[in-house]
Amino acid sequence: MVRDDRALKIAEFLLQIKAIKLQPGDPFTWASGWKSPIYCDNRKTLAHPKIRTFIRQQLASIIEEKFGKPEVIAGVATAAIAHGVLVAEALGLPFVYVRPMPKDHGVGNQIEGEIKDGQSVVVIEDLISTGSSSLKAVEVLRNAGCDVKGLAAIFTYDFKLAQESFKKAKCPVASLCNYDVLISKAIETNYVTEKDLKTLKSWRENPEAWGI
Q1: Would the CA dihedral through 31, 33, 34, 35 be positive or negative?
Q2: Along the chain (212 residues), what's the average pLDDT of each consecutive run of 10 residues?
Q3: Structural domain boundaries, residue 18
Q4: 211 belongs to a structural domain
Q5: What is the model's pTM?
Q6: What is the SS3 assignment for 56-95?
Q7: Could you tell me the CA-to-CA distances from 160 to 35, 72, 87, 192 in Å, in that order?
Q8: How many CB atoms sit inside 10 A of residue 11's CB?
Q9: Rg (Cα) of the chain, in Å, rounded?
Q10: How far is residue 1's CA from residue 14's CA, in Å, rounded to a whole number?
Q11: How far apart are CA 2 and CA 21, in angstroms?
Q12: Cis before residue 199, ω within 30 degrees of 0?
């Protein structure tokens, strides 16, 4: 991703409202079990109308720039549902969301909403780490007959594992902000120190083994 004004503004907002927390000296533990000096919760942006609106506008813009206008917007449950709805509204498009697993009751839907075979879709994700949950949603949509044009995200850690997985799945990714831009903004605003920078860089190089 180009280190542009859009990316820097997103980084500034995420740090400002503590949607992203950096704690090199007191690492977080992710659901995967990985130890991490960074934690991201982009759902916090929904509580800030100005930031929420900016993200909606920029996601809508980057979708049209990178993928053209699709026929449907799909959100990855649960964190990307709200952002997906906002983007679909901005573009005047139908919205669906994709569950991690089919429901175990009712009609057993995994895709919630109305979608038709052959429709072009762009997937919305709030955060890309390993990319596994995002690509699972892409696979579900493709299996339903959708033409997935790509995925748009608010933030990505830009792990090599994720890059390779999206490439293998032939799913282009457009992200508003990434790890390198975020860290540069955090240094610029004294959110972290130069001393912390070494820790943050070493984690990104080998996140699975970091802190073990």
Answers
A1: positive
A2: 78 95 87 87 97 98 97 96 98 97 79 96 96 96 98 95 96 96 91 85 88 68
A3: 5-205
A4: no
A5: 0.93
A6: HHHHHHHHHHHHCCCCEEEEECCCCHHHHHHHHHHHCCCE
A7: 17, 29, 28, 24
A8: 27
A9: 17
A10: 17
A11: 23
A12: no
What token pair was written down for 112?
């919630």
Tell me the one-letter amino acid at 75: G
Q: Indicate the residue type of 6.
A: R
Strands 20-22 and 38-40, by their bridges, are antiparallel
Whichever domain contains 58, its CATH number is 3.40.50.2020
As a three-state string, the secondary structure of 89-156 is: HHHCCCEEEECCCCCCCCCCCCEECCCCCCCEEEEEEEEECCCHHHHHHHHHHHHCCCEEEEEEEEEE
Q: Is residue 185 part of a domain?
A: yes
Residue 212 lies in a domain: no
Per DSSP, the three-state class of 206 is coil
Domain count for the chain? 1
* The residue type at 60: A
* The token pair that represents 171 in the structure block: 């799913």
- Separation in Å, CA 143 to CA 89, 138, 169, 200: 25, 9, 13, 38
Residue 29 lies in a domain: yes
